[in-house]
Amino acid sequence: xxxxxxxTEHTTFxxxxxxxxxxxxxxxxxxxxxxxxxxxAQRHRQQSGNEDHVIRIVTEQTISTLFRAS
Amino acid sequence: MKALVTGFIFLMISxxxxxxxxxxxxxxxxxxxxxxxxxxxxxxxxxxxxxxxALGSFVSLDLKESEVSASGNIIxxxxxVWTIKAAGxxxxxxxxxxxxxxxxxxxxxxxxxxxxxxxxxxxLSYYDDSFRDYQKKNAQLEYDYAVKKIAIEKRQEKNLYxxxxxKLTGQTTALQKLFDSLSKxxxxxxxxxxxDSIVYEQQVAAKRAEFLDKAITQPDIADAxxxxxxNWKTKESKKLKADIEIxxxxxxxxxxxxxVKKNDFKFLDPALIPAxxxxxxxxxxxxxxxxxxxxxxxxxxxxxxxxxxxxxxGLSDNFSDLKKTSxxxxxxxxxxxxxxxxxxxxxxxxxxxxxxLKSVRIYADAYKFFAKNNALAFHVYPELKIKDxxxxxxxxxxxxxxxxxxxxxETAVINTELYYNxxxxxxxxxSSNKLFERNDIGLRFTFPIKFKTNK
Lengths: 70, 455
Description:
The complex is a heterodimer of chains A (70) and B (455).
Chain A: E1 2-3, E2 11-21, H1 34-46, E3 55-65
Chain B: H1 2-18, H2 32-48, E1 56-63, E2 67-75, E3 81-91, E4 94-95, E5 98-99, E6 102-103, E7 108-116, E8 122-127, H3 128-153, H4 156-183, H5 189-217, H6 222-242, E9 246-268, E10 278-298, E11 305-316, E12 323-332, E13 341-350, E14 357-370, E15 376-387, E16 390-405, E17 413-422, E18 439-444
Parallel strand pairs in B: 9-13
Antiparallel strand pairs in B: 1-2, 2-3, 3-4, 3-7, 5-6, 7-9, 8-9, 9-10, 10-11, 11-14, 12-13, 14-15, 15-16, 16-17, 17-18
Helix pairs in contact in B: 3-6, 4-5
């Protein structure tokens, strides 16, 4: 999972991406690299009958908080 | 009782302290402040059932002829949500909780505090196109703000007025010269029109000069304008931030609740003489709840689920175990028997009645959503009840939740669950009924939270 370099000492953000189709139940795997999710969307569209499908890229952002005794 | 209240206050303080974390900004994705704001929005929407939530208090009131029920929500900055439910009898529009220092009949109060858990990870999913659109609009907003700020700091409005005034002075002099030279010519109808037009232009220029003089000599209000500008940017930014389309979330939260309820009823003891068989009875029950919930919601099909588990400590009676009997009392209204009588019908309860029973209820719910838009869900809900002097009772329920659009309002969604609850799974109460006969089957319309279904 891609980690954000600008994360603070107490919180860390991680990101992952995937393609989700509005018109059927298609969802790609999660990818650290957004371009891989975009490629998955293209592959789904290229399948027969999917030309007019609306396929959107979803980014998941996760926050982890560390608790430290000061 | 004291222990229950002390425990409740302690948990409130602990949850409030947990909710304080550092605030720093990330450059990729949503900033930490923005991220938390959106999570809090989703969270309070689940708890309160309100689609558009903001900080503040909300209340709904259902006033019937003799009863009132009210539910309210208070959402605080840390994303904590208070929910308050009250019900009771009313007379002449007054909801009296205490009367002569005693709890009124039919009064119930339920207060719950819900706080997001910071111990586990919280996730928010959003559509990438929606986020890029936000970034673009936000960059434009930042640019507009910067330009407007420079204009205020450099007093650009005033500068433009001074330049315009200077230009106007030159134009006025030229108009006067033109007027003077045309006035010397032989008068024709066309020349008259031209002169009138010049006079009009002179008068308009004079008014404009008056306006410019006032604007130029006005006291400097740059500081006030900068405050207005900051407010404008904040409002626009809030609108943009709220426009990001959410595609999923994952988070858990703790809920602590306290409920108090007074139940008044008539107790029937057939063994006594008729005059003493019916007695008024009542009991004030208390319940302290602690619950953890976790919701994973996604626009993708077959991924969403909701889990909760909790413990409820109570001080109650065994009212629900009593047998309900309809009692009729007749009173002769005339000295002649059978001529006229009034009949009063009411419910009385009989059986072995026990008060001040300490009880513990351990419960859990699991909903697994299926189908597009999470329109279907399978529900399992085990429960263990332990009460003074009574063997522990285990129940196990199953349900199928349907999320359907309201026929009257297509934007509204009605969630309905068909449930089958196996009561007393291990027959602790030594019932003569078989397992499949000890049941409760029906439809449920209220749920632990406002599920995000059938958008």
